[in-house]
Write a structure and sequence with these properties.
The chain is an alpha/beta fold. It has helices at 16-28, 47-57, 71-76, 86-89, 104-107, 128-131, 148-159, 193-196, 201-211, 215-222, 249-253, 257-265, 278-281, 287-293, 296-304, 306-312, 319-336, 344-363, and strands at 5-12, 36-43, 63-69, 113-117, 121-123, 140-144, 184-192, 227-230, 236-237, 269-271. Helix 2 links the parallel strand 2 (36-43) and strand 3.
């Protein structure tokens, strides 16, 4: 059997529903010959949470899960007290778990490579090809964020002496060179462990605190020329692909809407990098509505048009369901209406609901 691929998630108990579904999708879609060694950097996990995660892993062969309590690291490095950008976020604090991934190289110092994945994801294919990314000479393999073109435009304007908002959040990503014109999205990472071990972890945190940076901006600030890029299909971020931006796809994102849709249809990882997460719609309170309906297709049709489909499915007089769908439908319709033509948001949300429903059927775990 081939060596297990190390995969890391990080979260506190607030993100557990997202982790349940992401983990289930990761394991469901691996090849039989693939083995994953999964580690969760966590805080405030109860025994019930750990047992649920173990139950999910035990559904599948050739994989394991381990938990590392990060409370001691969080306190030692004071990770809970790093402020957001002061001009834009009114001195709010970045969530401490966002920095946990920076510790991966030191915790896995004997490994060659480790994959990190955000919890607000669906993993739809085996990740062996991602693990095999050539990161020789680089600290990590990361997706080039589609906003790179916009940041490049902003930096070029500044270099040419044109007006740039002095309070713009990315102004510190320009030193007069073009090094900062590429921007990475740190929701999926392939760490080159040995390369990272030559670096100073304390320095990372000190820079983050001084400049009010989250983990992603910190990586962009420190490692601008030390990163290699992975294909977009390994980190398909929903927040960028609104039909309202359709005229800007070619100019800013260097990709056509048709290519975006093809990427999503053949993607490896969907990343719900948006305000409304799927588990906010389908949560422990509203999950019963899906169980009553018993079909994700009917469930999503009722969210989009209760008046029409409640008659078709025979639920028109069910006042309890009607109330629940009023709670469910508005955030769902708000998100899917960002992409009514290409239906990218609906594709991703409905896929998440399908995995959450299947997970419940197999384990009784409500996401």
């Amino acid at each position: 059997m081939q060596k297990a691929i190390n995969i890391v998630y990080s979260t506190d108990a607030n993100g557990i529903e997202q982790l349940y579904v992401s983990l289930f999708s990761l394991l469901k879609n691996k090849e039989n010959k693939t083995s994953y060694s999964i580690t969760v950097f966590c805080k405030d996990f109860t025994s019930a949470i750990k047992n649920n995660l173990l139950k999910i892993v035990n559904l599948f062969d050739n994989s394991s899960i381990n938990f590392i309590d990060f409370k001691q690291y969080e306190e030692e490095y004071d990770l809970a007290n790093i402020e957001m950008n002061k001009e834009h976020f009114l001195n709010l604090k970045w969530p401490a778990p966002t920095y946990y991934r920076l510790f991966i190289p030191w915790i896995f110092s004997n490994e060659e490579k480790v994959i990190y994945i955000d919890i607000d994801t669906l993993v739809l294919k085996d990740l062996t090809s991602l693990y095999n990314t050539n990161v020789t000479g680089y600290v990590a393999g990361v997706q080039e964020y589609a906003i790179s073109s916009w940041i490049q435009w902003n930096n070029e304007a500044k270099r040419n002496g044109e007006y740039v908002n002095p309070k713009h959040i990315y102004n510190h990503f320009d030193d007069g060179s073009t090094d900062y014109d590429k921007h990475v999205q740190a929701g999926v990472l392939v760490f080159n462990i040995k390369k990272w071990l030559n670096l100073d972890l304390k320095k990372f945190i000190d820079v983050a605190r001084k400049l009010n940076l989250n983990d992603q901006d910190l990586m962009n600030y420190l490692f601008r020329t030390d990163i290699t890029f992975i294909p977009d299909v390994y980190n398909l971020c929903l927040n960028l692909w609104s039909d309202k931006n359709i005229d800007l796809f070619n100019e800013w994102y260097k990709i056509t809407p048709e290519q975006v849709l093809e990427n999503f249809q053949n993607g490896y990882i969907y990343h719900f990098s948006i305000k409304t997460k799927p588990d906010w719609i389908l949560n422990s309170t509203t999950f019963d509505a899906l169980l009553t309906i018993g079909s994700v297709e009917k469930f999503t049709n009722l969210m989009l048009d209760w008046d029409k489909y409640s008659i078709e499915y025979g639920y028109k007089d069910n006042m309890d369901l009607q109330w629940k769908f009023k709670q469910l439908s508005e955030p769902y319709k708000f998100e899917v209406n960002f992409s009514p033509k290409y239906k990218i948001y609906k594709l991703a949300f409905d896929k998440w609901f399908e995995y959450a429903f299947e997970l419940y059927q197999k384990t009784n775990i409500k996401s």
